[in-house]
Specification:
Layout: H1 2-11, H2 16-38, H3 40-48, H4 65-84, H5 86-136, H6 139-144, H7 147-163, H8 169-189, H9 191-238, H10 240-245, H11 249-275, H12 277-301, H13 309-350, E1 372-381, E2 386-396, E3 401-406, H14 412-418, E4 427-432, E5 435-436, H15 442-447, E6 449-453, H16 463-467, H17 476-485, H18 489-494, H19 512-526, E7 530-534, H20 542-556, E8 560-564, E9 576-581, E10 584-589, H21 591-594, H22 602-612
Parallel strand pairs: 3-8, 3-9, 6-7, 7-8
Antiparallel strand pairs: 1-2, 1-4, 4-5, 9-10
Helix pairs in contact: 2-5, 2-8, 3-5, 3-13, 4-5, 5-7, 7-9, 7-13, 8-9, 8-13, 9-11, 9-12, 9-13, 12-13, 17-19, 19-20
Length: 613
């Protein structure tokens, strides 16, 4: 329960108005329920002619409020019998019972009406918080977490939270109010009998609480397994081409079916425990009613209480009316325990630490053209277990083009990722225009840069929106100009709807060269002073490469550029070429300098290997 209250404290405050209205109407519904049940007593007394006597009107203040209300009710009933007869009076009491019930059900509806915006609002807020956190977390977080599992937390876990915890809010704020009000009336009728009830109810609650705690543990395992399934599906969809090419359908099916079978077993366990809530609460409630019938009947038959038979029936009606709220409350507690397991998984994202932080007192961006300098930079994953870069010192003057070459795994892409602070170095520092990049706001730092990657990352949107991505209020003529510079305008105009053509998931309706040229057009429109090109032409055929290379040269003009090159022929004119091996710069210079016979020969060997191929 402590965890649930903590959840409410975090998310309920913006909806306090709805919560207050819900509680007010819940109290009103409980009171009206009591009064509607109270009409049963005079109806029974009239039917069985139990209460006989003459009543006189009592003004307020002449006795206790309870005695005045009860006496005057019987006085008006007596007057009605004298004027209209018993049958008509009975009909009037029955009609009053209907009116009271209508008011009670109306108040009950309004209590639910006002809790709905609170429920839906909290779920909406949690989704927003998760999405904001996912977009704020560094890329390193997603190299550890599976994408499918993150998707499962945003979809399955949030849906579970909505279907369990949030769906239980109405019961949680309504049922305790009903129980407290009903118990108060039961105390007023017979404190001896109600004291006995107070002993029975906690025992029942203790039994249900133990089962509920076990349900939370099983639910956490179940939701974790759902994340494994989602990851499996995401990997299958992403690697479908490879799966089919290697005839691995049977292998991936058996893996999925094995994980799905485990999810099936866990789901059965959770559902069975949750289904246990209703029969257990009904059994315990019926047992309590039987015990109270025996105990209350013994008090009346033994003359140990002044409670009459109609009052005892009214008492039992009230107690029986507590059973349903108690059962709903027990089901709500089971559902909450199940939902809190999902909240634990959601909090793993919401509470994840983001090491890439803005400084408390950010420095302004450098004025004019700015170079990049790396000073003794080292970087490692897994808290130093996997060292990727070692003591890198590199100067990229403003307006220069510096290329990084080397075998796969030498640290080229990691070095490029340090500049926009996708990661922070574990040692050394990086400066732009003489300012440490950690002294700048992350947003400001990245506003200086344009990226074109080996894999053109596009979105299932129009061509216009993909080029204008990240540029507010981009004009049509500016987008077209960027597309022309990127050699993309002709194929765009030849497409179905021109710039309004939707390109499909990740641009699947375009060729590799077309996707890459759209990426370049996007970078041109942003017009950044610093440019990072990560093997932007390595996956293209010769014709597409020529078009993309021409577009890149236009993009690189008058910009400080860091190029990660796979095809060495594309970087012959770079201001400087750096050869990386095992995280270190082992050779650097211009193409001509590195090709000299007296040079160490690492670069020359790479060029000769590519020429031979």
């Amino acid at each position: 329960m402590k965890d649930f209250i903590a959840v409410l404290r975090r998310f309920v405050p913006p909806y306090k108005k709805y919560l207050a209205l819900n509680i007010i109407f819940n109290i009103l519904a409980a009171v009206l329920t009591l009064f509607s049940f109270a009409l049963i007593i005079p109806i029974l007394e009239m039917l069985f002619k139990i209460r006989e006597g003459v009543y006189t009107f009592m003004p307020l203040g002449s006795a206790s409020l309870k005695d005045v209300v009860v006496n005057n009710f019987y006085y008006y009933t007596q007057e009605s019998i004298a004027s209209y007869g018993p049958a008509t009076t009975l009909a009037l009491l029955a009609a009053l019972l209907v009116v009271m019930t209508a008011l009670k059900t109306g108040a009950t509806y309004l209590s639910s009406y006002f809790i709905i915006p609170l429920r839906s609002g909290i779920v909406r807020d949690i989704r927003n918080f998760m999405y904001r956190k996912i977009t704020a977390l560094p890329i390193g977080f997603f190299t550890v977490e599976r994408k499918g599992d993150v998707m499962a937390r945003m979809s399955g876990d949030v849906a579970e939270l909505e279907n369990s915890v949030m769906a239980s809010l109405d019961m949680l704020f309504k049922d305790p109010v009903m129980i407290v009000v009903f118990l108060g009336m039961m105390l007023a009728i017979s404190w001896q009998l109600t004291l006995f009830v107070f002993i029975l109810l906690p025992l029942a609650g203790l039994v249900m609480g133990r089962v509920g705690r076990r349900l939370k543990r099983t639910s956490l395992e179940n939701q974790t397994q759902w994340g494994v399934l989602m990851s499996n599906i995401e990997e299958t969809l992403g690697g479908l081409r490879v799966i089919k090419a290697f005839n691995a359908e049977t292998k991936v099916r058996s893996r999925f079916e094995r994980e799905n079978q485990r999810f099936y077993r866990l789901s059965n366990s959770v559902a069975r425990r949750q289904t246990l809530a209703h029969p257990m609460s009904e059994f315990l409630g019926t047992t309590a009613i039987a015990i109270i019938l025996w105990f209350g009947g013994s008090l009346i038959l033994g003359g140990h209480t002044d409670m009459t038979a109609p009052k005892f029936i009214y008492y039992m009606v009230i107690f029986y009316s507590i059973i349903n709220p108690a059962k709903d409350l027990s089901k709500a507690m089971y559902a909450i325990q199940k939902g809190l397991a999902s909240m634990t998984r959601i909090d793993a994202i919401l509470n994840a630490e983001n090491p890439i932080k803005d400084p408390d007192d950010p420095a302004p961006l450098p004025d004019g053209p700015a170079g990049i300098r790396l000073e003794g930079v080292s970087f490692s994953y897994d808290d130093g277990a996997t060292e990727v870069l070692r003591d890198i010192t590199l100067d990229i003057p403003a307006g220069a083009t510096v290329a990084l070459v080397g075998q796969s795994g030498s640290g080229k892409s990691t070095l490029a990722d340090l500049i926009p602070r996708f990661y922070d170095p574990t040692a050394g520092r990086i400066t732009i225009g003489g300012r440490d990049i950690r002294s700048l706001r992350v947003h400001d730092l990245r506003s200086l840069m344009g990226n074109v990657n080996q894999e053109a990352i596009l979105f299932n949107d129009t061509i216009f929106n993909n080029i204008a991505f990240g540029v507010e209020n981009a004009r049509r003529e500016d987008v077209e100009r960027a597309a022309r510079i990127a050699n993309a305008h002709d194929f765009i105009m030849a497409s179905e709807n021109g710039y309004d053509t939707v390109i499909g998931d990740r641009g699947c309706r375009l060729s590799g060269g077309q996707r890459q040229r759209l990426s370049i057009a996007r970078a041109i429109l942003k017009n950044p002073p610093l440019l990072i090109l990560d093997e932007a032409t390595s996956a293209l055929d010769s014709e597409s490469e020529a078009l993309v290379q021409e577009a890149l040269e236009r993009l690189m003009a008058h910009r400080t550029t860091l190029v990660i090159a796979h095809r060495l022929s594309t970087i012959r004119n770079a201001s400087m070429i750096c050869v990386l091996s095992e995280g270190r710069i082992i050779e650097k210079g211009t193409h001509d300098e590195l090709m000299r016979p007296d040079a160490p020969g690492h670069y020359r060997r790479l060029v000769e290997m590519q020429s031979a191929n």
